[in-house]
């Protein structure tokens, strides 16, 4: 009985919302990584090129943090690729979208709120591809996020640098209105 009531209420709520559009926050092209980003460390923040303020997100040039300037739903899509790593053995890496709340400035991180798992991949033959996507409802203009890579294991400490020509992020903003 409760399931029936919940389903009925859910369909009423869905009927009240109308999708009025999607904004390509990062533009028509992805924003590529920048710098010598070595994922063979316990945790690394990924830096992205291009400064912009569009569709509710702002990003400083060559920074890792993305600041929320409009409350909304956003889809974050990421691909990170190592094509010529120096590690000779096998390894395992995971990529996350790390969400922060209660930032005081646009350059300092707020409080870690949650890590959204985007994917994991096995490193071998000097290559790895990581990525995934997540849809997040940012609830405040004091929130921010960044993409981080965590090493699960690797048998050496050699540099495994991201290929900046094949590592990127795209962000879309979803706008809804009451019907």
In short:
By secondary structure, the protein is mostly beta strands. It has one helix at 2-16, and strands spanning 17-24, 31-32, 43-45, 52-54, 57-59, 66-68, 72-82, 91-101, 111-123, 128-138, 144-154, 168-178. The longest helix has 15 residues, at 2-16.
Would you write up a description of this structure?
This protein is mainly beta. The chain is built from one helix and twelve strands. Strands 3, 4, 5, 6, 8, 9 and 11 form a seven-stranded antiparallel β-sheet that branches. Strand 5 and strand 6 form a beta hairpin. The chain is globular and about 55 Å long.
Tally the beta strands.
12
Overall residue-averaged pLDDT value: 92
Shape by Cα distribution: globular
Provide the low-confidence segments as ranges: none
Layout of strands and helices, then pairs:
Elements: H1 2-16, E1 17-24, E2 31-32, E3 43-45, E4 52-54, E5 57-59, E6 66-68, E7 72-82, E8 91-101, E9 111-123, E10 128-138, E11 144-154, E12 168-178
Antiparallel strand pairs: 1-12, 2-12, 3-11, 4-5, 5-6, 6-11, 7-10, 7-12, 8-9, 8-11
